[in-house]
Amino acid sequence: MSKKPNIAIVGATGVVGSTFLKVLEERDFPFENVYMMASAKSAGKTVTFKGKDYVVEELNEHSFEKDIDIALFSAGGSTSEKYAPIAAKCGVTVVDNSSQWRMDPEVPLVVPEVNADDIKWNKGIIANPNCSTIQAMVVLKPLHDKYTIKRVVYSTYQAVSGSGVKGISDLEEGLKGNDKCEAYAHPIAGNCIPHIDVFLENGYTKEEMKMINETHKILGDDTIKVTATTVRVPVFDSHSESINIEFEKPIDVDEVRETLANFPGIVVQDDPANNVYPLARNAAGTNEVYVGRIRRDFSVENGINLWVVADNIRKGAATNAVQIAEELIK
Ligand code: A2P
Q1: What is the number of the ligand 1 atom nearest to the C-alpha of 10?
Q2: What does the pLDDT look like over 231-253, one tens digit per residue?
């Protein structure tokens, strides 16, 4: 792309949409024009970007008839289902944060540190993976390349910001003693709820199956055995994950630590003697994936346990999407 791109933010008034704007600004993403889009409810409101106010437009069938190069979508699955193909038909490259297109074989599912090359075969839509999957992929990729992963067990501790404004409000109200349940089936304050997204016939939740299926697609290896339990916890920002991995090849714990530390996007925080390990509150507002509690799993031959934390709205959503856009304009 020789000229600076024109960009559109679809869902500009939402939690992820507003973080798109922060991240674009922080990373000084080059652009010519920017268009802010949301539902009819927000049409006419203004959002501020790089010190300038922009009027929000209602998204409709004609929104992409202007000269737009890249659109960052975070306005829910049904909006993406309808409008991403319309945008793509108009020549726009869509980076979609919803789960709508992730498993479509025609759509690359991308974590730039892991599989940026897949961007090349996009046909107008590129999918941003699930927040819990993204932070896990950054960690699994260098280890899979080196030791070949046989099996992974994910156990997640996920922040309420992943449920948008309603999730945040349920926790805020819950901490004041009001058991509001707008985002969840049970009060979130004082609870760990092993129920993210809907339950499926196989007994897993949809969130758990997203982690399993997306791991296979992003690593390009369906032979890896993956299982997951995803849990919502009373934390505002950043998802934490316990990841247990079994490898084909023998591992050395110090070498694992070094391999992770040398991979782009990872910060190793692993000094238990000084109480240093990744923490949700420290990760909040940053773009990196933090790894610690790196230790051998004694119960199997070549196993390791890790504790992995990242800001779910940043690396788990907005930052990853902006990184994809950066690859597009390279
Ligand atoms: P709006 O604020 O006008 O409802 P969150 O996930 O934080 O709730 O944000 C969802 C984002 O998606 C908001 O910007 C919201 O706009 C936008 N959105 C929701 N439904 C639609 C729709 N049908 N068309 C366009 N934007 C939508």
Answers
A1: 26
A2: 999 999 999 999 999 999 999 99
Global pTM exceeds 0.85? yes
Mean pLDDT for the stretch of residues 308-313: 98
CATH of 132-312, one of 3.30.360.10, 3.40.50.2000, 3.40.50.720, 1.10.10.10: 3.30.360.10
CA of 198 to the centre of ligand 1 (A): 21
Nearest ligand 1 atom to the CA of 166 is 8
Q: Per-residue pLDDT tens for 121-176?
A: 999 999 999 999 999 999 999 999 999 999 999 999 999 999 998 999 999 999 99
Measured CA to CA, the distance from residue 199 to residue 182 in angstroms comes to: 18
* H or E, element range at 229: strand 225-232
Give the end-to-end CA distance of the chain in Å, rounded to a whole number. 7
Written out in words, the top-level CATH class of the domain with range 7-129+317-329 is alpha beta
- Return the domain boundaries, the chain: 7-129+317-329, 132-312
Closest Cα to atom 2 of ligand 1: 13
Atom number, ligand 1, closest to the C-alpha of residue 16: 7
Band of the pLDDT at 180, cuts 50, 70, 90? confident
Residue 259 exposure: Cα atoms within 13 Å on the Cβ side? 17
- Catalytic sites, residue numbers: 131, 239
* C-alpha to C-alpha distances, 193 to 200, 230, 247, nearest whole angstrom: 16, 9, 30
Q: Output the CA torsion 95→97→101→107 (10° steps).
A: 30
- Mean pLDDT of the residues in the chain: 97
Query: Ligand 1: distance of its center to the CA of 207 in Å?
Result: 21
**For residue 319, how far is its CA from the centre of ligand 1 (angstroms)?**
19
Mutate to test the pocket of ligand 1, among 9, 13, 97, 168 (most ligand atoms within 8 A of CB): 13
Run of H or E including 266: strand 266-268
Average pLDDT over residues 278-286: 98
Determine if ligand 1 sits within 6 Å of the CB of residue 38. yes
User: Which of 39, 62, 63, 312 most suits a substitution to test ligand 1, by most atoms within 8 Å of the C-beta?
Assistant: 39
